[in-house]
Write a structure and sequence with these properties.
By secondary structure, the chain is of the alpha/beta class. Helix content is 38%, strand content 13%. It has 21 helices and 14 strands. Strands 2-1-3-4-5-6 form a 6-stranded parallel sheet, sandwiched between helices. A 6-stranded parallel sheet has the order 7-10-11-12-13-14. The protein has a two-stranded antiparallel sheet with strand order 8-9. Helix 3 links the parallel strand 3 and strand 4. The chain starts with a strand and ends in an 8-residue tail after the last helix. Bound molecules: cobalamin and iron/sulfur cluster.
């Protein structure tokens, strides 16, 4: 049987990183079946195109995965595929939270022949076997003999053969630039961000988060050896093919067990398996100096921190009192001293927020080392404690907001602001955080750092916003570069000056956090005094 695994596009990013679930399930598929992957962000298709593709490829089963924000699109695709006579199984967080919706048991239309609840590592081979026999059941749940939910232990963990997967569609280097880079042999013809999980689960139970409910509060880890081997394989592959690879450890809280994270990082360092990496870690865990030293030594470059709010009352309201706003600055300084920067995430529309929350938050952010702030509205995802609380209080204005998805739109009434005011605060926060003036101030604030650090910082600032707002068109890119020309020009001029004075000197500053199309040209790299450290 030929199987298609499909993830609908999110309507924002062109491509960024493969979705791990597709590659994991492909690896877990019994070898007598063929699996084709399509990520809508990398290969956009409408319903008709997808159905044509399925017919042409003689696909016998389609698996669709989606977050809540993409579920309406996923249902539309599923409807078209089922209408063409091909069975659809859906999985992932949303259908796990509201399976009746996908199965049409809630009074709405049916979108899926079957749903896979929760983690599907063990149920997937069963689903495939049933589909091959034409005996697909409606619900697949990972249960033990007593009918209790069984979570995969992650030991052993399958070897995802990244080196054999077609990752062409996830290359971060724009197609137009590749031939030039190939000719110059710079090793930057291709840049990939690869998702790796080292563990699953987070016990913290923040009120708005789906993770504790989905993965459970029992944390499970892969063995250090298995993670290190995956990194080594990726590193070897990157070196052999003169490609750049970066890693996103997609664990919900990468340092949830500090002892284990330290031991993993030590093993990565000892094996020489370092690749530039990013991960999500909560602020409370970054108090540990030794952990931060190990993050730096293992080539951690960007840490995503869910700060949510600078107001402790708000944090208590959403069960996140372990975040201490008073220590945010110290945490970020500790990271910045080691050349590690942060993606800091904030939520507006929390119950204690009032008008002016953007200005107050931005003022705080400006007093910290520069990072990449992101802002979102409080979103009641189905099955979260937040959702239940808002239902009880009668505060949901769009109880099924996902069926009519609109980015950055509230789905409930906040307590101390209007919905429109929250939207305005969000817009202010995003606009000010990535304005030309703010970008320049951010780069000037690290004027004492080497030029490659500053260049990378600017490039990342320019690119990063594109994960949340569409900015991938040529026109949008041109405008972005034009707007920021002064900061770009200054860095290039400084780099060029240094290059001229050291024309014959060997270049030795490694900055593999780079990974940006802007630094792909060999001359530009020389000007900025950088070389990749993958060798
Ligand atoms: C990586 C990640 C991202 C990446 C996504 C890009 C990418 N290519 O992966 C980035 C950083 C961009 C991102 C952004 C966002 N994310 Co995110 N993200 C994650 C994260 C941390 C890991 C996903 C992952 O790979 N997990 C590991 C795999 C193995 O697990 P899995 O995907 O659940 O798959 C398993 C099962 O679900 C099942 N399965 C999944 N799909 C399918 C399909 C079929 C057919 C079958 C049979 C089974 C199946 O099988 C798999 C193996 O067991 C998750 C949290 C988490 N731990 O999952 C949040 C998560 C998915 N994100 C979430 C959210 C809310 C967001 C944002 C909306 C946040 C925001 N406010 O901006 C944005 C959206 C941005 C956008 N433009 O779309 C929520 C989604 C909740 C929901 N109900 O939809 C999660 C669950 C985190 C949370 N705090 O609740 N995210
Ligand atoms: S710490 Fe992060 S992953 Fe854990 S429950 Fe809170 S928001 Fe979710």
């Amino acid at each position: 049987m030929r199987i298609l695994l499909y993830n609908p596009d999110n309507g924002v990013t062109h491509n960024f990183m493969p979705h791990l679930w597709m590659f994991l399930l492909k690896t877990l598929t019994p070898s007598e079946h063929d699996v084709v992957l399509i990520d809508g962000n990398a290969r956009p298709m409408d319903e008709k195109q997808l159905v044509n593709f399925i017919r042409k490829q003689k696909i016998g089963l389609v698996g669709i995965g989606a977050m809540t924000r993409m579920i309406a699109r996923a249902y539309r695709m599923a409807d078209a595929i089922r209408a063409a006579g091909v069975p659809v199984v859906m999985g992932g967080p949303h259908v796990t939270e509201v399976p009746d919706e996908a199965l049409g048991r809630d009074g709405g239309p049916r979108h899926a022949d079957a749903v896979a609840l929760g983690e599907a590592d063990e149920t997937w081979p069963r689903i495939v076997a049933d589909a091959a026999r034409g005996e697909l059941k409606e619900i697949y749940a990972p249960l033990d003999e007593q009918g209790k939910e069984r979570k995969p232990s992650l030991q052993p963990y399958p070897d995802i053969p990244w080196e054999k997967m077609d990752l062409e569609q996830f290359d971060l280097v724009p197609k137009v630039a590749r031939p030039l880079l190939e000719r110059h042999g710079s090793g930057w013809r291709s840049v990939h961000m690869i998702p790796i999980e080292s563990g699953r689960g987070c016990p913290y139970g923040c009120e708005f988060c789906t993770v504790t409910g989905f993965f459970g509060d029992s944390i499970r880890f892969r063995s250090n050896e298995s993670v290190v081997n995956e990194l080594l394989r990726l590193k070897r592959h990157a070196r052999k093919n003169r490609r750049q690879v970066m890693v996103f450890f997609i664990d919900d809280n990468f340092a949830i067990s500090i002892k284990r994270t330290k031991s993993l990082l030590r093993d990565i360092i000892a094996a020489g398996a370092q690749l530039p990496w990013t991960a999500q870690i909560s602020a409370n865990l970054l108090r540990d100096e030794e952990l931060v030293d190990l993050i730096a030594a293992s080539h951690g470059k960007w840490i995503f921190i869910g700060m949510e709010s600078i107001d402790s009352v708000n944090l208590a309201d959403v069960n996140k009192s372990f975040n201490k706003p008073a220590e945010y600055a110290a945490v970020l300084d500790r990271l910045a001293q080691r050349g590690i920067y942060s993606i800091t995430s904030f939520i507006f529309g929390l119950d204690n927020d009032t008008v002016g929350v953007a200005a107050r938050t931005l003022k705080e952010i400006e007093s910290w080392p520069p990072g990449l702030p992101i802002f979102g509205q409080l979103t009641p995802f189905p099955s979260t404690p937040l959702y239940q609380r808002l239902v009880k209080a009668g505060r949901l204005t769009r109880p099924k907001h996902w069926l009519d998805f609109a980015p950055f739109q509230m789905a409930h009434t906040p307590l101390k602001m209007s919905i429109a005011e929250v939207h305005e605060e969000l817009s202010k926060a995003w606009t000010n955080s990535y304005s030309r003036e703010r970008n320049e101030r951010a780069i000037n604030s690290i004027a004492d750092k080497p030029i490659d650090h500053r260049a990378m910082h600017l490039i990342t600032r320019l690119i990063f916003r594109g994960i949340y707002f569409p900015q991938m068109g040529k026109r949008a890119w041109a405008k972005l570069v034009l707007d920021n020309r002064r900061a770009i020009y200054r860095l290039v001029r400084e780099g060029f000056g240094k290059w001229r004075t050291r024309k014959t000197a060997t270049v030795t500053v490694p900055i593999t956090e780079a990974g940006s199309p802007f630094l792909q040209d060999e001359r530009a790299r020389d000007v900025l005094q950088v070389i990749p450290d993958l060798n």
